[in-house]
Design goal:
Layout: H1 8-21, H2 32-36, H3 53-56, E1 66-67, H4 81-90, E2 94-96, H5 109-118, E3 123-124, E4 130-131, H6 150-159, E5 166-176, E6 182-194, E7 210-220, E8 228-234, E9 242-247, E10 252-255, E11 287-299, E12 318-319, E13 327-328, E14 331-344, E15 353-361, E16 366-374, E17 379-389, E18 406-415, E19 420-427, E20 429-430, E21 434-435, H7 445-449, H8 452-459
Parallel strand pairs: 2-14
Antiparallel strand pairs: 1-2, 3-4, 5-6, 5-19, 6-7, 7-8, 8-9, 9-10, 11-14, 12-13, 14-15, 15-16, 16-17, 17-18, 18-19, 20-21
């Protein structure tokens, strides 16, 4: 008979103790980041029960199983409330796979190298912003890989959304109405250029006052083609970004109210600027950050989510809902430890959001679920990403150094009060010939995508 020294109850007590103490150091059997100094394998930091869904559920769920309404209650405590509702009442299926133990498969290689190189150098200044030891803007990677509190965990999400110095996402979106039909279908491109907090340790164009430049422009259908927006983010997280846009109906570039970040960019879509990476607003426009929970979680963060090689444009099969079109396929694994961070929109006097909760995988500091609540405390929206290293048995996408790329592959964004859902994928290419890429090499991306003149040109 195999006697387990560290059973589920041991882990549960450990997580409860950490939450009550307000501490966020990762690991159960040993500090995770200390173990990672010797090996990329997280196995020594967690007991088997937190790395095996079969052991955790006492055989009720195992890798290869599919969560449905019939068995989802066995893992109800491992899903955010909206994902649980989708499976239980809306016909969603979730495929279960083995837990990822090799941490290098949960990061872009350059970002992980920068995180390890700069570990221990970050601090919060008196103004609430993150600085390095010399008091300069953060130099790259996660500033607090072994986050000790909710502010540190949130800073990891805020300073580098996509974890590349430049990211260009070709996005194909389908918006599902309450009847289960596709009411809108959009192609758009989302660009992110980090000016500071870069993995290469540089400051782009000497703009140490800026965190990032971020644009989004729609390329299809024709009645929306040309709608374009540019956010200029300051490094100072007390300041709202400058927001300009071009709408075909106005035929000019105009300034938009930057604090109205809880509205859809185009009709039908449930994506708000505030939703981006669960950190779509400057960090200090939200407040009262606190860790409200800690424990294992199911999250779509493994390689199985990358469809390259099986689908030429990286799209995904769909199922569920009244017409079988509501959800795309996702593959979730047992994540041994997540922290749940709660915050309130203190910088938005008229915000329709009362609070948000973000579930963060402590192995890589990335969010795996995000839920917002209205002013009454009722759940309003969920924003669930799927991530993967871009490598499978059919295709591997490599970075400039020959390492497999890593990024998000899809999102399910669900307004459960209106029962409207957007599902979108990071495609290989969208209308207009725009492709997903993670390098600015050889292209003047600033003048092409990230200036007011570029927004006007893309719109026109």
């Amino acid at each position: 008979m195999h006697i387990r020294k560290f059973d589920f109850d041991y882990s549960r007590r450990m997580f409860m103790g950490k939450t009550l103490a307000g501490a966020a150091t990762a690991g159960v059997l040993a500090p995770m980041w200390s173990e990672l100094a010797h090996s990329a394998d997280v196995s020594k930091a967690y007991p088997d029960e937190l790395l095996s869904i079969e052991m955790y559920t006492k055989g009720k769920i195992k890798p290869g199983d599919v969560l449905t309404a019939d068995n989802v209650d066995a893992v109800k405590d491992l899903l955010d409330p909206v994902a649980y509702k989708q499976v239980k009442t809306m016909g969603r299926r979730i495929n279960i796979v083995e837990s990822t133990k090799d941490v290098t498969r949960l990061y872009p290689a350059a970002y992980l190298d920068s995180t390890l190189r700069n570990k221990g150098k970050a601090k919060f200044g008196a103004d609430g912003n993150v600085y390095d030891e010399a008091g300069k803007p953060w130099v790259g990677g996660s500033p607090f890989p072994d986050a000790k509190d909710a502010n540190e965990a949130t800073a990891n999400l805020t300073l580098s959304w996509g974890r590349h110095d430049y990211s260009q996402y070709a996005i194909r979106d389908w918006d599902i109405d309450p009847s289960g039909e596709i009411s809108y279908q959009y192609d758009f491109v989302w660009c992110e250029l980090n000016c500071t907090s870069r993995s290469d340790g540089k400051v782009w164009n000497n703009r140490s006052d800026l965190l990032r430049l971020q644009s989004v422009f729609f390329t299809a259908p024709n009645d929306t083609k040309g709608s374009s927006f540019l956010n200029t983010w300051y490094y100072d997280q007390r300041k709202f970004p400058d927001l300009i846009g071009y709408l075909p109906a106005f035929k000019r570039v105009r300034q938009f109210p930057t604090n109205q970040r809880f509205e859809p960019l185009v009709p039908g879509i449930t994506l708000f600027l505030s939703d981006a990476w669960s950190a779509g607003d400057p960090m200090q426009t939200w407040g009262n950050y606190k860790i409200v929970g800690r424990g294992p979680m199911l999250g779509a963060i493994g390689n199985k989510n990358f469809t390259g090689g099986s689908n030429a444009n990286y799209e995904r099969s769909v199922h569920g809902g009244p017409k079988g079109k509501t959800f795309h396929e996702t593959y979730m694994e047992l994540i041994p430890e997540c922290v749940i961070v709660e915050a309130e929109p203190t910088g938005f006097p008229r915000a329709p959001v009362g609070k948000k909760r973000t579930w963060i995988d402590v192995r890589n500091g990335m969010f795996i679920a995000y839920v917002t609540y209205d002013r009454r405390g009722e759940i309003w929206k969920s924003f669930e990403p799927q991530f993967a290293q871009y490598s499978n048995d059919k295709l591997t996408i490599k970075d400039a150094n020959g390492k497999p790329e890593w990024s998000w592959v899809g999102v399910i964004s669900h307004d459960i009060q209106a029962n409207r859902l957007s599902r979108f994928v990071q495609a290989k290419e969208v209308t207009g010939g725009y492709k997903s890429t993670y390098s600015e090499a050889g292209v003047d991306v600033y003048n092409k995508f990230l200036t007011p003149q570029a927004i006007g040109r893309l719109g026109a």
